[in-house]
Amino acid sequence: MNEEVSKKLELIRQTLRETEVQGVRLRGTDWFAWATGGASNTVLLTAETGVAEVLVTTEDAWVLTDEIEAQRLKDEELPANFKVYVNPWADGGARESFVRDATGKGKAVSDRPISNLEQPLPPSLQSHKRVMMSSELERYRQVGQKASQAMTEVLKAAKPTWTEYQLAGAGAEALWAKGLHPALTLVAGERRLPLYRHATPTGEQIGRQAMLVFCARGYGLYANLTRFVCFGALSDERAELHSHVREIEAVVLNLCQPGTSLDRVYHALAQAYEQHGFPNAIHEHHQGGTTGYLAREIVANPTTTDTLAEGIAVAWNPSLAGAKIEDTFVILKDGKLENLTFDPNFPNVEVEGRLRPVPLYN
User: Fold this and answer.
1) Distance from C-alpha of 4 to C-alpha of 73, rounded to nearest angstrom
2) Going by C-beta distance under 8 Å and a sequence separation of 6 or more, which residues neighbour residue 290?
3) Is the N or the C terminus of the chain less surrounded, counting Cβ atoms within 10 Å?
4) Quick check: pTM over 0.90?
């Protein structure tokens, strides 16, 4: 039996006892990966739900899927903790009938309730999902290292004549080659970089500089990072923008301690932007937040009272027009931050005791 999954099944059954329902159904790609110790129910990358779901009762733990997917999931994805129920792909009603029997026609809680017999998951279980166990953290380190290495490889190979599509495609290829899903690859070349925070790639040449952003998924966990490549020297003005975002980021990273609320982090960021002479920047893009089985589990805003804790991962992305910084960190038990997406082969400078990325000159 998988020890991590056994612990999670006990947490789920604790939810059954607390809520006095007869079943927990987990449909989302995030929750499926969490409950199964990193297995994937994803076929269509852009879908929030996958080709299988988890059903847990007081007695049993099931993966529910159809006859198209069952054998592959058994062979390649699922831990031994789960039984597998297989319905005909053309008969979704058979699955619902099975669930009614398994739960004694009782109520269930779900991450995505779809009937009047289902209620949302309680906050207690949602909190458990956001705090990494040691085995999850080991997998997360692997994802972070592969993602950051893929980023470095691609930007070292990039040419100013490449289109944004080519750079995004090279990024996606590098992630796939390492077994990661390219859930997001944003690219902005020289002209578009100052214009858009979420720059989806185009057929335009990147020119003298470009930004590449990854949300890379492995074992259901997201490694989020942003890097820049330059062909020739940056102007003093552009270099100063990058310096500003590094210093603004240091404010938020210093606050990432157990017990700190996300609204406090947001307000500290707003103040840092103002002190650096950019009072409107806090409104021009979200600043990030906690991460893990979603690219952002909780995005920090002025009223987000959720607090940070040991084992929670964070990904902040302070930005100005033409500059941005982002890595994925986890809060360790001594309150220190571990950078899961650090690559020593990418150029960096020290900012308040941490090595932070700077633009790569090609």
Assistant:
1) 19
2) 130, 262, 296, 297, 298, 306, 308, 312, 313, 314, 315
3) N
4) yes
* Number of Cβ within a 10 Å radius of residue 29: 25
Tokens representing 197?
């925070």
* DSSP calls for 95-112: HHHHHHHHTTT--EEESS
Residue 35 structure tokens: 């409950």
Strand, coil or helix: what is 298?
A: strand
- The DSSP bridge partners found for residue 337 are 331
Confidence of residue 1 (pLDDT cuts 50, 70, 90): low
Domains and CATH numbers, the chain: 3-126 (3.40.350.10), 134-361 (3.90.230.10)
Give the burial class of 128: count Cβ atoms within 10 A of its Cβ; 0-12 exposed, 13-18 middle, 19 or more buried: middle
> Which residue stretches of the chain are H helix?
3-19, 29-35, 70-76, 92-102, 123-130, 134-157, 164-177, 236-255, 262-275, 281-284
Cα–Cα distance, 227 to 360 (Å, whole number):
8
Helix (H, G, I), strand (E, B) or coil at 35: helix
Encoded tokens for 146: 């592969």
Q: Can you tell me the mean pLDDT for 120-144?
A: 97
CB 298 within 8 A of CB 307: no
Q: How many CB atoms lie within 10 A of CB 208?
A: 18
Burial class (CB in 10 A: 0-12, 13-18, 19+), 232: exposed
CB of 255 closer than 8 Å to CB of 264: yes
d(CA 323, CA 243): 9
Q: For residue 261, what are the contacts with CB-CB under 8 A and spacing of at least 6?
A: 304, 305, 306, 307, 308
Instruction: Give the pLDDT band (50/70/90) at residue 311.
Output: very high
The one-letter code for the residue type at 333 is K
Amino acid, single-letter form, for residue 140: Y
Instruction: Residue 119: name the closest of 16, 258, 9 by CA.
Output: 16
- Measured between alpha carbons, how far is residue 328 from residues 113, 117, 221, 317 in Å? 30, 38, 11, 10
Q: Which of 320, 341, 340 is nearest to 330 (CA)?
A: 340
